[in-house]
Amino acid sequence: MPNDRILNPCDLAGRGVLITRPAAQAEGLCRLVEAAGGRAVRFPAVAIEPVVDREPARKLLAQDWDLILFVSRNAVEHALPLFPNRRLPAEFQLGVIGAATAQALILAGRAPDLMPAGRFDSESLLALPELEDLDGRRVLIVRGVGGRGLLGDTLVERGAQLAYAEVYRRALPVTDVASLLTRWRRDVQLTTATSGEVLDNLLTLIGRNGRDLLLDTPLVVVSGRTEKAAMRLGFGRVELADGASDAAVLAALCRLVGPFHRA
Question: Which fold has domain 49-171?
Answer without folding.
Answer: Rossmann fold (3.40.50)
